[in-house]
C-alpha cells in the first residue's frame, strides 16, 4: 500500500486557514524535473506554544520559531502578511484581507518555551509607499488579552493537564461534623505539644549557655567580656562608658 499523498491547493476543497501553518518564504527555486519548492521558516500561534495561562496575546499575534523547512510550492494555500506592531497600527498592505494580517513581536526557541523580543534587524522590511500600503486616518490602539484561554478563573492555577484552576479541580467541601467533642479533645493535645516544645527549647538554651561560658573562660582576654546579648534576640552590644569601666 502506498502512503496517502498530501493535499495541495488543487485537490483540497474547503480550506480552513486557522488550521494552516504560517510560513515565511525566503527562497524559491525549481529543480531539474520542473518541481517548484520554497524555503523558509515557520510562525507559531499562541496555542501552539508552551506558556503560562496568565500570559496575554493579541488576537492575531504570532511567534517566530527557528524551524526552517523546504516545502513544495503546491502546498501553499494562500497569501498572508506578518507585520510588527508599529507598522500594523499605521495601516495595512494594499488589497490585504484584515483576516490574514498578523502581528509578530516575539520569537521562541525550538522547544517553543522561551520567549524573547525580536531584534529590529530581524524584522522583515515592509514597503510603506502609497501604491503598496494603505495608511489609516487614525492610528490603531490595540491591547493584549487572554486570547487563547480566556480570563483566568481563581487566584491559583494548577499546572497539570488542561491548565484548569485549583478551584475547578478540588471536590466540593464536605459538610461540617455534628459532633462537638473533637474540639474539646484536640485542645489538651495542643497544650501538651506546646508545653513539650517550650521545655525542649529551655533545655537547648541552657546547654548553649553552658557551652558559651566555657568557651568564654578559655579566651585569653585581659578583661571579661559580656556576650550575653548574643543569647537574646533583639539586643545589640553597647560599649560600656569609660566612667563605669574599672
Automatic annotation (TrEMBL):
Entry GO MF terms: chromatin binding; histone H3K4 methyltransferase activity
UniProt keyword terms in alphabetical order: Nucleus
Subcellular location: Nucleus
Domain BAH residues, every copy: 1-119
Top-rank taxon: Eukaryota
GO CC terms: nucleoplasm
Region (Disordered): 147-185
A Pfam family hit: BAH
A single GO BP: regulation of DNA-templated transcription
Classification via InterPro entries: BAH_dom (IPR001025), BAH_sf (IPR043151)
Annotated transmembrane regions: none
CDD domains tied to this protein: BAH_polybromo (cd04717)
Protein known as: BAH domain-containing protein
